[in-house]
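Me: I hope this is not a bother. Any chance you could explain this protein sequence and its structure tokens? It all follows right here:
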Amino acid sequence: MSHITQIDLKIQDLDALQKACQRLGFEFLNHKEYRSFYGYQKCEHVIRVPGAQFEIGVNTLDGVSTLHWDSWSEGGLTKAVGKNAGILKQAYAAALTIKAARRAGYSVYEQQEEGKLTITLRREE
């Protein structure tokens, strides 16, 4: 059954969310509406997922962004972003980690194997 829900994730860094989308091959757009089973819904930004019929809307209030989506399986988002958007959540966490590590002076090394991302941090002295 189709319905719009909020993904259980508070976004405090839109740049990291954009990097997460880029890592996953998604588009982060400055649109004012996202597509769902019920038509177009208002938002500030849109995450467009290749091959999915629906999109994810991004809304910001008091510096915290929330993600809204229609998780109906026929819309194609669940397959791409995972159950409860787990794949998108992991990519956002990785983007935050990498950004913070670089800011703190660490070198960042990434290795992707069989869908598993390993991030190694080294402080150059």
Summary: Strands lie at 4-11, 27-29, 33-36, 39-42, 45-48, 56-61, 64-70, 106-113, 116-123. The two ends are 56 Å apart (CA to CA). The longest strand covers residues 4-11. The chain has one domain: 4-95.
